[in-house]
Amino acid sequence: MKKLFRLFYTNLFLTNRLFGAVAACVVLYLLSFFFPWLGIMPDIAFYALLALLIADLFILYRVADGMSAKRLAPERLSNSDENELSIYIENRYSFRINTGIIDEIPAQFQKRDIWFATTLAPGERKQINYILRPTRRGEYEFGFIRVFVRSAIGLVSKRYNFEQAETLPVYPSFLQMRKYELMAISNRLTEIGIKKIRRIGHSMEFEQVKSYVPGDDYRTINWKATARRGDLMVNSYTDEKSQHVYCIIDKSRAMRMPFEGLSLLDYAINASLVLSNVALLKEDKAGLITVGEKIGSIVPADKNYAQLNKIMEVLYKEKTRYLETNMEALYTTVRRVIKQRSLVVFFANYESLPALQRQLPFLRRIAKFHLLLVVFFENTELKTLSEQPAKDVEGIYIKTIAEKFAYDKKLMVKELASHGIQSILTSPQNLTINTVNRYLEIKAKQKI
């Protein structure tokens, strides 16, 4: 009995309607002292309210399992993307109810407004969808689903607690990866910002002899096949395959800088995953190396079915380090692991020219054996400051310093180019598009 009372007490909540009705009864009692003609009206109002309260409690608590609720969530969430989750609810009462639903989402989101209000007819089922956008990789713990039920009387609310505790991992942006994958398969990468690359010459990789269609290069006409078939036939060429593409991610403290809720490391991880997937779709071999004050993870280049999952599992666990990048260890690892000439995409962040110059000797050594592409970030905050007009002396100082840092970034590009090293200077939000663009351009020009 004590347990039943505790369950009743902890799951019963008084509504504003009840407090309003009680306040009205109190006012009537007070007025009855000044207006005797009110007579027993305050007593009638009080007992009527008491009867309604008992009736409300009875119809809500006479059914033990009047509600059902369940969270529908994917097996894993995609970092930096909008992930859709759902709550499935069912009304098992024989009357219409008003419900309020709270989903206890992980603390990482810092949200306290996940509240859904809806009305359910007898036996009705509903699915409520909502969006969560995680900004950190790792494990996210979800808690209970709590449903508050009110009848048409609406004096009290009964709470149902549904134990839906579960832990969902947040992986690098696989939703973004799938978007690029579909575009790459259908050769529609231009629709999401991937520019069309003008081919210079032809790849040496012969594919097939096919019938001529308008738009084919007449220089590829196969005259012998044309004579045999009596119809124009052309040679078809394809990109060279099985070339090695390695993504190297710097995990030093310079990559901890935040931008729109994500660190630069997370942007580099998302871009690496997309680039590896596009490379595998182009039948190249994708590999990965991470580096901080020491060498982190190494995934040798391959193009088997499980390669992308290996890369994703490695990237899921990577975190920013707090020391400088050990470039000597990186050069030694590149020479030991990468045996043939490859495209090496190095994701880093340089805020000053001296920071680049400290690493430049090792970058030049890597560039002797591989096609090195250094990808680093624009400081969008400084760029915004440099473009704003100065209104006072302090504004002039700030604008001058911002322009100086922005100019240093352009000098870095020239410095790398003077040593035969390709580079991409990009804002974080355009990192993936610009990186895939350059890969397609390099592949089209057969530079690997």
TrEMBL record:
Keywords: Membrane, Transmembrane, Transmembrane helix. Pfam families: DUF58 (PF01882). The chain crosses the membrane at residues 12-38, 44-64. Residues 208-350 form the DUF58 domain. InterPro entries: DUF58. PANTHER family: BLL2464 PROTEIN, SLR2013 PROTEIN. This is Uncharacterized conserved protein, DUF58 family, contains vWF domain. It comes from Mucilaginibacter gossypii.
